Amino acid sequence: MSKIKLTVVQPFQTKIKGDFDHIIIPGVDGDFGIDSGHTPFITKIRPGNLKLYLGRNIEKYAIHDGFVTVENDQVTIVCEIMERDNEINAKRAQESKERAEKRLKSSSEEIDFRRAEIALKKALVRLGIVKN
Amino acid sequence: MANIKEIKMRIESVKNTRQITNAMRMVAAAKLRKAQENIIKARPYADHINNMLRMIKLKNKATDHPILTNVEGKGKSAFIIVTSDRGLCGSFNSQIIRKALKHIEQHPDADLICIGKKSYDYFRKHSTNVTEKYINLFNEMDFSVSSDVAEKILELYLDQNYKKIDILYNEFKSAIQQDIIVKQLLPVKPIEMEDVTNLDFLYEPDEDTIIEEIGRKHIKVEIWRIMLESSAAEQGARMTAMDSATDNATDLIGELTLRYNRVRQASITTEIIEIASGAEALQ
Fold it and tell me: I want to staple B111 with a disulfide (CB 3.0 to 4.6 A). Which of A26, A109, B78, B198 is the partner?
């Protein structure tokens, strides 16, 4: 099976550049897998787990936003924030989850709910990937 | 005739100043290198977003999303001026302010958005149109900072129904040269590039969402790039300014030392003459 080329670019670095057998990406309309020969495709990414398969090896990342384009076996992910499972600090994620939940529950008007919600989602994604 | 002690003190103080300017030059050089590295690192990301934008614009020329296209019957325009937060960087800020004033003459009713303390300090005194300011950002600048600025600018653009937003900033050419650039930030004009593969893409969830998101990302990376360019240019200008300040201090020290020696010699000569004439008087 031919491989897919993956490039992940961030504003301050090129995070991943390599060949993989199979990629699972969390799209806004659901997770989807990409194999060689996928149709040209653009979608938005929702917070979730990005999984890269190469042989028996699986690399897992928490990804929070961005886009993916697929063309001619070249997959490019444009994102601002992503972390590999071993880069995540579980304790910090747990703390920020609790903080966000507390903020969402309180009824004060000064709280930016959208921000708290995003923070909560991020924390949940991070925790999810650490636990699996 | 100047006092020996006075000259000596003057030499000491100039030496101190030289030490400071020299240190500032070195600090500026280090910061310049950092900013340049960041510019290079941001390039693949910016290129890819630009590619996507161009592809989308080619495909459906009729997009009427406000981020991408001029919508008819809109009101005012806005103008972003990027300067540094700190001084001692030669003519870096004064040049850009001069250029901004020219632009303001042509569009007297444009709203001003100041990035950098120097532009805010100037325009709050000389203009009533300052609507927004972002100051003291350059010292600890990373992507999240510039991304906040970009989001606020986008919000402002959509809220105020601006016709367009222009941005004025210094672009880094080399340590001794900065170019002042005026360009349109919003609505987005993708940079022309060589032919991109124009495949028929599937969009999920739909084109409009994707277009809006890519537009937003583009503005973010554009602001990031502009702030990095401006910061690199600022450090370059400061490096040059401090370099010449150090040179001037060295020249001044040379001159003062010469004068010091001359005065010292003169006073010794006077003393010898006094002693000699005193001895002669005794005979």
Answer: B78
